[in-house]
Amino acid sequence: MVAPVPTSAVAIRRIPLAEGTAGWLRLVGGLHGRPGFFWLDSAQVGPRLGRTSFAGADPWATCRVWGQRIETRVHREGPTAPPADAVGDALDAVRALLPPRPEGPEPMPVPFIGGVVGVLGYEAGDCWEVLPPPPADPDALPDATFLAVDRVYAFDHLEGVAWAIALVADRSRALAAAAAEDAVEAMLHALPDGPGPPAADATVPPSCEGVRGLDAAAHDKAVCQVHDAIRAGDLYQACLTHRIEVPFTGDPWQLHGILRERNPAPFAAYLDLPDATLVGSSPERFLQVTPDGWLESRPIKGTRPRGKTPEHDRALRDELAASEKDRAENVMIVDLVRNDLGRVAELGSVHVPEHCYIEPHPTVFQSVSTVRAHLRQGRDALDAVRASFPPGSMTGAPKLAAMSLLRSLETTRRGPYAGALGYFDARGAVDLSVVIRTAIVRDATAFVHTGGGIVADSDASEEWAEAEVKASALLSALAAAQAAST
Predict the structure, then answer these.
(1) Quick one: DSSP state of residue 426?
(2) E strands within 329-428?
């Protein structure tokens, strides 16, 4: 194995895509099927989120983490030389895969130039806090899985421009820069090309059912236990979730095509991992860290379905905006996120520029707040992730008390669900979404999780109905993809 290299460089070239978005989908379709295919898909483009999508395949290394056991498999020479097996947490694994900050043109037209793509499962946070052990689960995945990537394709949806990006390391700046130029030229001369993800017949039944970790009666009992803990003063809120197992022999690629058509989201994703395929349409940013140290989290608390008529739609939106319960839920989680970011932020920099903004999505309205801060000197993006994980919107408040109670109420591990998915950039930036509205496909089964925050005045039947609304688009897409395969 080669010794660690002292410097890295990046080269970027514009891709001539005559067809705009259609051309981008063909490029991504040509990557699909290669080992380690990933697509961070901004399927819902808006002024706040979703400007740039990223795709790639053939990572130079794949890393899986169980607790503090790190297993790395190197597929070809890459920018660093991590050991095959090591001891440490999931973010230690990321740090070992990231190359030295690269030399290259500045400013870059895209925020991700290569580094690490992957998923940080909910239970990965057990390394950083003292918690009861999670339930035994024969279907458990690694606590984290990462793809080390040095070739990335990007698409700016607002400008309609695509880019090829190569990240190379060598023993000198000149050698690294020359090798990066050669690599990006090779990418341009062999652009992937293939069909994008297919959609499905709209006449397919709208939903499907599966085996649930909690049924409605067990959910009601669990809500009562959360209420008991709140009355005892142990906590204010707990995000109670459950898993749905759906038989699925369809094509995950088509599932993604259906989801991005019916329920597009700014943090949609497709990850082909060694142990499973993740297909998701998350609307929620867990944590963004910019190269100049700005932090942003956008917790979601409060959901209503979209209406069947314009009048009904407006009424549901107004109902969410006026709901004291949902606003109280949101305020609790905003306070939690402010506290998390404050652990690594400059004194006085934590602020909330948006509070309970009602954000429309194709199937739901969401109440979203924005929390921002600036990293203090001596801290980096991985420190910010460690201080904030798991996402506060998926735990409750206080965080540790809620997580401890939930361990006794939830019957399965959460796995990737309620964790974080996205990229760790070689220049020190991070952008991670909350893993919600996501199917984990393996062994002819799709695993779907759903749930919601329980507070003192939560009604169990209403919370169950809200969880059903959150899962409905994904279950409907699974039914359509399954029907298309038969």
Answers:
(1) T
(2) 351-360, 364-374, 396-397, 420-425
Cα–Cα distance, 88 to 72 (Å, whole number): 12
Question: How many angstroms separate the Cα of 461 from the Cα of each of 31, 354, 364?
Answer: 44, 30, 19
pLDDT for 203 beyond 70: no
What domains sit in the chain, N to C, each tagged with a CATH number? 7-485 (3.60.120.10)
Lowest mean pLDDT among 78-82, 150-154, 266-270: 78-82
Q: Please, what is the Cα angle at 476 between 466 and 318, to 5 degrees?
A: 35
3-state DSSP assignment of residue 383: helix
Q: What is the DSSP letter of 3?
A: P
Rounded Cα distance between 210 and 208, Å, is 7
Active-site residue numbers?
Answer: 284, 301
Residue range 46-71: average pLDDT? Answer: 92
CA torsion, ordered 387, 388, 390, 392, to nearest 10 deg: 140
DSSP character at residue 197? -
Question: Could you give the 3-state DSSP secondary structure of residue 205?
Answer: coil
Number of Cβ within a 10 Å radius of residue 388: 25
**139 contacts 447 by C-beta, under 8 angstroms:** yes
Q: What pLDDT sits at residue 1?
A: 46
Q: What is the mean pLDDT of the chain?
A: 92
Looking at residue 261, its amino acid is E
**CB 195, CB 29: distance < 8 Å:** yes
Identity of residue 194? G
* pTM of the shown model: 0.95
Dist. CA 332–CA 322, nearest whole Å: 17
pLDDT of amino acid 45: 74
Q: Is the peptide bond before 47 cis (omega within 30 degrees of 0)?
A: no
Angle 464-466-467 from CA coordinates, rounded to 5°: 65
Q: Give CA–CA dist 42/229, Å, rounded.
A: 39
Which residue carries 């001891």 as its tokens?
Answer: 87
User: Which tokens sit at 87?
Assistant: 């001891």
Q: Facing residues of 73 across strands?
A: 62
